[in-house]
Amino acid sequence: MELRVGNKYRIGRKIGSGSFGDIYLGTSIVNNEEVAIKLESIKAKHPQLEYEARVYKTLAGGIGIPFIRWFGTECDYNAMVMDLLGPSLEDLFNFCSRKFSLKTVLLLADQLISRIEYIHSKNFIHRDIKPDNFLMGIGKRGNQVYVIDFGLAKKYRDPKSHLHIPYRENKNLTGTARYASINTHLGVEQSRRDDLESLSYVMMYFCRGSLPWQGLKAATKKQKYDRIMEKKMTTSTDILCRGFPQEFAIYLNYVRSLRFDDKPDYSYLRKLFRDLFVREGFQYDYVFDWTIYKYEKESTRAQQMNQAQKEDYMQQQQQQQQQQRTPQNPTVPRHNGSYVVGDKTNMPPVHYGGAPAQDPSRYLPMENRVNDRV
């Protein structure tokens, strides 16, 4: 039986999991266009999908904000149909052997700061800034970064009066421990500064390949969070950013210096990295590491195939020459595809198979949610 949502979209295979639901590949019944469908059981203890859909609609029209095509209830599920996007930055980080070049980090930083600024301009903070929640577009928008998963987003000010929410303490950690700000670990209510501090850790993760507080062991989740907080607090900015341009340390020191209700200077932060980009002599050609890596993989595979074909031809020529020199009644045993002539063994032609390099422009699992990822 074909599963449908809103009598408009067919539900296909599962392609990912979100904080509060699973993601499926869908197709439009009208034109077969592919979409992403997020489902959440109506029996969920803390339903979030309707709230998330409302946030998306508030943010609608912004650059890098996925378009919500439909939201409603189907059988026992809440369903949200949205644009299908490409791989996450975490997917691409793994594709590139878990290290991004400075150029790629700076190209991303410019867009990521702008995405966060836009969300803040609409009176929301994201509260779960991490590589998994930034996806590349597909097709003509393949170089554009999108931000997803607003299940943990929260209004930080009144839309009309712009009155900021009050400062509070003793709050539980919301978000992902690896990228959480120090104040979030300390139980302080989150505000705009915390999204930007989390982004600093994301950028250093991309530059370094890992963060100093990854892989810490503890008996309980709380103890693990405490160890992560302790490591963050005792790792100085200079140590965290050692070996990389000073702009990364300047950025982190700036966002950590912000007061709870301060409006960050997003233009200043963008300019920091734009000036560094120009000083390094990079070009705004939007050639990311995964673009180059994909080309190199495919080029290497093509060379291997050409070499294999050449070896195939040479071995066929040798076999033909050997057969011409062989007596009419040869005593050459043939077995298992190997040809034995005297004391030499010539194996059958080698064919270099293997799957082609993974193409990051194809859709990959949209979300790989582990909110306590460390």
Automatic annotation (TrEMBL):
* GO molecular function terms noted in the UniProt entry: ATP binding; protein serine/threonine kinase activity
> Would you identify the family this protein belongs to, as annotated?
Belongs to the protein kinase superfamily. CK1 Ser/Thr protein kinase family. Casein kinase I subfamily.
Residue ranges annotated for the Protein kinase domain, each copy included: 9-278
The gene is: HRR25
What domain of life does the native source organism fall in? Answer: Eukaryota
Keywords from the named record: ATP-binding, Kinase, Nucleotide-binding, Serine/threonine-protein kinase, Transferase
- Enzymatic reactions: L-seryl-[protein] + ATP = O-phospho-L-seryl-[protein] + ADP + H(+); L-threonyl-[protein] + ATP = O-phospho-L-threonyl-[protein] + ADP + H(+)
InterPro entries assigned to the protein according to its UniProt record, in alphabetical order: CK1_Ser-Thr_kinase (IPR050235), Kinase-like_dom_sf (IPR011009), Prot_kinase_dom (IPR000719), Protein_kinase_ATP_BS (IPR017441), Ser/Thr_kinase_AS (IPR008271)
Region Disordered, as annotated, extends over 303-374
* Residues reported to bind ATP: 38
* Enzyme Commission number(s) from the entry: 2.7.11.1
Name this polypeptide is given: non-specific serine/threonine protein kinase
- Composition skew (Low complexity), residue ranges: 315-324
Q: Which PROSITE patterns match?
A: PROTEIN_KINASE_ATP, PROTEIN_KINASE_DOM, PROTEIN_KINASE_ST
